[in-house]
Amino acid sequence: MKQRRQKVLVLYLGNSALDSRVKGWSLYDGTGQGNPTTGDSDTPPYATGVDALRDGWRVIQFPQLIPPYPNMEYTTSFQMYEFIFEKLEEIDG
Amino acid sequence: MVDKQYLLNSKQMATFVARGFLRFDELIPQEINEAVMAEIDRGGIEAAPAGTPLSQCYPEPSSIGHLLRMPEVEGVIQSLVGPDPLFDHQAIHVRQPRQGSAQGLHGDSIIDTRMHFDIQLMYFPHDVPLAMGGTLLLPGSHFRRINEMDIARYQNFLGQIPMVCKAGTILVLHHGIWHCGRRNETDQVRYMFKVRLNPRVRQLRLWNTEDLDGSVSKHKAIFTRDTSAVEDIQTILGRQEPWFEDAAGRLEIVNRIKLWRFLTGDNNFDVHYWLTRLENMPENLALAA
Asked: Radius of gyration of chain B from Cα atoms?
């Protein structure tokens, strides 16, 4: 019997535009077919966020644009442009 | 005090400020590499209490003591954190064969907002091929204000460095660098020895500054090809890492300028006019024509 499982792709882009360049990436695989982990690839899966759409990924979260907190205007921290995508794939249950 | 010939030069210091690390390949001789491995196999390496001056740690016949007292190593340490820094802690990292997953990306200790910095020496006593899962580090991540494993969600970045090296290689990290141990896909156990050191003196011109002159601080033409053509201090501090976001990458250069000012005492130093422009707040009144 076929069952559906979620794969989640997180792309960290160069700016707030979905068609900007991929700077970082993470993959979580609910199908059990792969075991992605830290530092397992030096090549991004896509050049831009839109390239992921064209390959069938559905974007499920856009990053909000939040103004810097007062006195934190020059502070760097987490990646700001985190776009989350999903794919549902069928597996044999 | 170590002889001046073993101290870092200004370009090496600028590289550390910009990228948060320096590496010295095959620096440690093979007899020390083998002695350290044997010491680990005999049950480990005895650590001193946190806060002990380094000169009182690893007494003879400690092989790690031999390593840390090499003038080439002392010169690096003294350039970054001064003579006889404090021992913070040590760790022997062991990655078992065929280990299923990597460590999550992290910064060590807890969030640390100081301009002063500690260093971490990572020592690789045997060859580390790519498949063995050496330390992964992210150049230029040391100014990011994060707390330890908050960043474990990030798996890969453009420009990340998986440590692949020969035996006897030393990596010196700013305490804030993001890093992790990668998955070991070989049949061999991987070892890495790490020691963290705290400065006891103000980190001001501790390296060999004979190559620092007034030209370092002179403003240059900006947004021209010329600014990146010469490999000087400003060029090193202005070079973006591939993973930097478009806008935040500019803020990272500001972070570097501030640290360089702190380390040199030169409060007029700038790269690409980023801070000088912001510091221009004239209060004098224009004279009537």
From this structure: 21
Distance in Å, alpha carbon of B153 to nearest chain A alpha carbon: 7
Distance, CA of B131 to CA of B247 (rounded, Å): 35
- Residue where the block lists tokens 């010329």: B226
**What SS3 state is found at B164?**
coil
Q: What's the whole-model pTM score?
A: 0.95
- If residue B24 lies in a helix (H) or strand (E), which one and from where to where? strand B21-24
Residue B158 has its nearest CB partner, among A23, A27, A76, at A23
- Say if residues A18 and B151 touch (Cβ distance below 8 Å): no
The residue among B98, B155, B257 with the most chain A CBs within 10 A of its CB, best to mutate, is B155
Considering only the beta carbons, identify the residue of A25, A38, A77 that sits closest to B136: A38
Judge: A39–B255 Cβ closer than 8 Å, yes or no: no
* ipTM topping 0.85: yes
Is B158's CB within 8 Å of A24's CB?
A: yes
Digit-coded pLDDT (tens) for B26-64: 999 999 999 999 998 888 899 999 999 999 999 999 999
Helix axes B10-19, B248-264, angle to 10 degrees: 140
